[in-house]
Write a structure and sequence with these properties.
The chain is an all-alpha fold. Helices cover 64% and strands 2% of the residues. A two-stranded parallel ribbon has the order 1-2. The termini are far apart. It binds zinc ion (ZN) (2 copies). One zinc ion (ZN) binds next to α10.
Length: 254
């Protein structure tokens, strides 16, 4: 399990790093997005924390599979048991549940009494990179993995749904930690940017700790007043902004 989980992280985070800093580097610069490669120390620190997260998630996965073998989980393999519609319904339902769990846990971990032990490791990268996507203090990783263990005991989930959820979790997290906005904030993407967490939304959290606690969706941030009111005015790509840092600072200063 550790090999699979670490391999998944290294492939997707490493792949995103290669795309940004070699294959698409010139294209991104043309779009007005100049990003310096992260310092090796910050990559090293993120990978080290991700290895701890790997071990915790692998233990949780092994525990869940062991309990499945004993017949204690609600995991199932026959699609006809709940029908095809339930695959999509359970997938979206778990994303909404996980987003809610994460939002409140994340806000709690920002409490001054807890931050140092539960969440400081993730915020050591002030400018997030794909490597930061799985870099959590062990205490935080335990609470994140607990959610996944809890759902297999309480919600009937097909194995394909679980795999789809884990892939979505991984890819969305790497996407949120790209460190620069990928889409222009106009048209369809503007609508997506209102309701879904993306790289700009989450990068602002790494700069401004009191805003943007959501994982996938922005409705909790909107509802509970933790969305930065200046989040939307930044139109991207904007060639007048020379670097990601400028983009972030312009958004913060507005
Ligand atoms: Zn945070
Ligand atoms: Zn982050």
């Amino acid at each position: 399990m550790s090999g699979i989980i670490l391999g998944r992280y290294l492939t997707i985070a490493g792949g995103a790093h290669l795309l940004i800093h070699s294959l698409f580097k010139k294209f991104l610069i043309k779009q007005g997005i100049g990003i310096d490669p992260p310092a090796w120390e910050s990559i090293h620190r993120d990978i080290k924390l991700s290895i701890y997260s790997t071990l915790i998630f692998a233990f949780s996965a092994a525990f869940s599979i062991f309990q499945f073998d004993r017949g204690y989980t609600l995991l199932y393999s026959d699609i006809d048991r709940y029908g095809w519609w339930y695959l999509g319904f359970s997938f979206v339902g778990v994303l909404v549940l996980q987003d809610t769990y994460f939002y409140f846990m994340h806000r709690l971990f920002h409490h001054p009494l807890l931050f140092r032990w539960f969440h400081l490791g993730h915020h050591l990268s002030r400018q997030p990179t794909p490597w930061t996507s799985f870099a959590f203090d062990p205490a935080e990783a335990i609470f994140q993995a607990l959610f996944l263990v809890a759902i297999v005991f309480t919600i009937p989930l097909h194995f394909a749904t679980v795999i789809a959820l884990i892939m979505t979790m991984t890819i969305w997290s790497v996407f949120n930690h790209l460190g620069f906005p990928l889409f222009p904030s106009s048209g369809y993407f503007r609508w997506c940017g209102r309701w879904a967490v993306g790289p700009l939304h989450h990068s602002l959290h790494h700069h401004k700790y009191t805003k943007h606690y959501g994982l996938y969706f922005t409705f909790w941030d909107k509802l509970l007043g933790t969305e930065d009111p200046n989040y939307y005015p930044v139109d991207l790509p904007d060639k007048s902004l020379q670097s990601t840092k400028d983009v972030m600072l312009s958004s913060i200063d507005n």
